[in-house]
Amino acid sequence: xxxxxxxxxxxQFLAGGNIVEHAPVxxxxxxxxxVRCLTKVQVYATGTGELxxxxxxxxxxxxxxxxxxxxxxxLIGCTSAGELFRWNWxxxxxxxxxxxxxxNGETIxxxxxxxxxxxxxxxxxxxxxxxxxxxxxxxxxxxxxxGEKIDVNCGLKLKLRAPLVDVGKGQFKNIILAQGFYIxxxxxxxxxxxxxxxxxQHTITCVKMSPCEMVAATADSEGQIFVxxxxxxxxxxxxxxxxxxxxxxxxIAFSPSGVSIYSGGHxxxxxxxxxxxxxxxxxxxxMSSVIRHIVVSDDNENVLVCTDDxxxxxxxxxxxxxxxxxxxxxxxxxxxxxxxKFPLGLRLNPRTNTLVLNGRSGHLQFxxxxxxxxxxxxxxxxxxxxxxxxxxxxxxxRITQAAFNINWMATGEVYNDxxxxxxxxxxFWHYNERLQSYILNTEIDLPHEKGFKxxxxxxxxxxxxxxxxxxxxxxVIKVWxxxxxxxxxxxxxxxxxxxxxxxxNLPIGSLCFSQDGSLLAVGYGNTLALYDARNPRxxxxxxxxxxxxxxxxxxxxxxxxxxxxxxxxxxFTQQRQQLWALLKAxxxxxxxxxxxxAKDLIVRPPAKSRLVSQPENSCxxxxxxxxxxxxxxxxxxxxxxxxxxxxxxxxxxxxxxRLLQHLQQRAVIPQATKLRLRKLDFRLHRLHPRHRYxxxxxxxxxxxxxxxxxxxxxxxxxxxxxxLKLDESSKPKKEKKVKKVKSNLNDSSKANMKAKKxxxxxxPLQGLAQISHVQFGAGDQAHLVAVCTESRVLIWNLxxxxxxxxxKLSVRQLAFDPLTNLMAVITKNDELHVFxxxxxxxxxxxxxxxxxxxLAWLPRRQPRQSSINVDWQAQSTxxxxxxxxxxxxxxxxxxxxxxDAPTPISFSHPAATDIILKHATFGIHVIKPQQVSGESxxxxxxxxxxxxxxxxxxxxxxxxxxxxxxxxxxxxxFVKSLLIPADSTSRHSSSAxxxxxxxxxxxxxxxxxxxxxxxxxxxxxxxxxEARSSLDTRKTxxxxxxxxxxxxxxxxxxLQGLDNRLRTITALRSKLRI
Length: 1074
What we know:
- By secondary structure, the protein is an alpha+beta fold.
- It has a domain at 58-152.
- The chain has 17 helices and 58 strands.
- Helix 16 (1017-1046) runs antiparallel to helix 17 (1055-1073).
- The chain is globular.
- Residues 603-612, 727-766, 901-951, 982-1023 and 1049-1053 have low confidence and may be disordered.
- Pfam families: Beta-prop_WDR75_1st, Beta-prop_WDR75_2nd.
- GO terms for molecular function: RNA binding.
- Its main location: nucleus.
């Protein structure tokens, strides 16, 4: 099946996108802000941070976005391809598109509107563009109404770098440009310019013009800010230094009045300066990340600060406090370590089906794909965050592994600066219902050495007899379980190590629990070991396949060109032809002479390289004396020089043994030293954790020095044996008593005696396949285990202990869906393959995918009623975390994982509410277990705010704000739930009618969603007739009840008659209820 021809799915993006790459823009009244995200413009409400509108008509990335000066409702954006878009942002309508006239191959770098109008209804723009590589940057002025260039008489010529540009739009019409350490000031009224250099020729990082004065500000890479005045002439120019930042300044901004300056950098501190007094400043410290952009509103009430973790924070301009934050997807800041930003990959929290991945430094972020909103960031690493420095690499504690259960979370964090011993911590977190967050329960220091390979729970949804298995870089597996706490100050449960094991000290590739948690499968090298999860000390079974099946080739392949290549030398061509003929003859015959000839070719002695400027034999003695007289050289250096000149030394027999023993001790590490280091390593586990780190660090330093020396031994020390004639070939051969060989030996036996021995290097050892992923099946396929090696996917059957199937795939990442038993793998060639372990035939294939960090299956809230052979994403959606820090998925055009939200919920029947409510956007946050007695029939009715028995409303009101979805998603459903139905008599329907109302006359699937077929119309008509007859009966009973209630009492009170009337009324009311 050709999937590429029939594939209708498109790669779409669910989350991500950098909203802080460019500075946002305020609306004139400050109520809205416009954010650029590649080709889209997102409009947010400043007060609430809610996304109100998206303008997505652009076809290329937007490089500028500004409001027109005379028409504030007009938003003008320019793309890198030279297209101008004009939106009416209040109506969300694209008014006009204009294409700029560019030369061939030019790309727009910057586009800034000016306070200049030329025969058009919109302002002109100052544009910089660059053509091919190595060309200078060009600039020109364009009319944004027509897209034509305007002729300007100015001799300004720019350099090769991309410039930093800002345009003054007030009374003083000036442009400031910066390229490297050059600063240009241009007056766009008379088109005169001046050029300056920065102090000490430091690189300029940002520029800004004052909105109401002829004042400009520049900042450089050394943290210095200069305020420029009277810059039109060099004689009158003055500048003032503002210096507090110790690293480069990333952004500066003037207040609307020009009295204050805001600045930010890598210190994560917002600084507010007073222009008149450089020594007076205010600080807003501990921002979430590095500050990238600062924007001040026109009324000076709000300040937008864009941080490097993809967040926009709204700050009060007068009080310098954070009012709100707009954040969709958290990014890890760029560092110089070269390590992956997402070592955790993409994980799924089974409690709420939220995506979990690495966020800002030391945090995990929980993202809801249903509501497309970031729920919260959880701080896992309890250490200070170090700021980046210019000439240093700052290593931070990284969360490398995590596992999730419905009530528990386990995280593994590692700090490794490649110098000291690695700090490793394992933490277990318990979910607190009251706080709606995770609380640290247990912290273990140094559970493994050097780091983690994997962390996994035995079951995602069960809490009883829960186990957690961890695998480390030290090739040890530990199983953890819940025990009673031994702390007298804090009673409860804690996690402790129940058992640990390893297998022949082989490296661990992956591990996985079976569906019931009884078996633990571990991949050691090329061996799959199965353990009893209750006692994993010895493996129950070990499985390994032959080398030919696990992807490792057990034979060599030699390919020679049969036709001569162009430019090949004749002697090489002749040797290739001789070797090819010899191999053909060797394959077609079994001649021992040919085999012996091939062995001689393979074991040919290496060619000796000529020594440069070798002296003659008569001069070697002079060279030897000259070298030995050099006191500044050591013995090792002298011997190296002698070896270089080809001089061999003879050592007296009296000293030869001592010198040979000395060199052997230096060249080869004795076995006693290895045993001593191993014993010290085992004894370190007895130490207290306070002293264990220091001891481990010292021992690691010793091992590193030994390793470095071992690497130098074959290069330097071993060569001295040949110089001093101390190797085995130079030793005199001992005379041995050789028995006389019988003369009746045949020729073949003599040839075998003289045959050369093939060294080990000529026939290297066979490599072993390394297991990278292990995954159990689920349901009726729980007996199958998928094992991934470098070039194979092997399916083992644990019932027969045999290899069931194999796929030729080089798996890099794997994700398993327990609902459908589907396995999705990403190969090293960025190809997607989806299959089931029992039938290893691909259900779906796709190539040319972007690079990914991880995969995850997201269950649908409303599964589709179709087979996985027709729609393999009917039950769950496959999500991918790309290298561009975006979450992508495959779907038909216009579809989204959030499109399967159920219809609004009616609370008129509480029994149906508990079933349907938990599958809705509003219901999953407020549903509580309720016990409704069958006798409380009078309390049935619409949900009324204020009743204490309705815990759903109380839970919704008392819900934590950071765990709630957007109000626009739940407000409509919540208001509709409070409405009283028009027919109030429906509450008195019969139990059969209640069941019919619950299911809407149809069947209910596992998610509480009704499905009605077209052949049920006759049943609806019968139900309608029954409802009419029951309604007539109710009306008759009500009339009789009213007559009995309104009858007057005659004369004296008749107790017997009154009792009979009460019985009759009670019977009629009970019938009315039924």
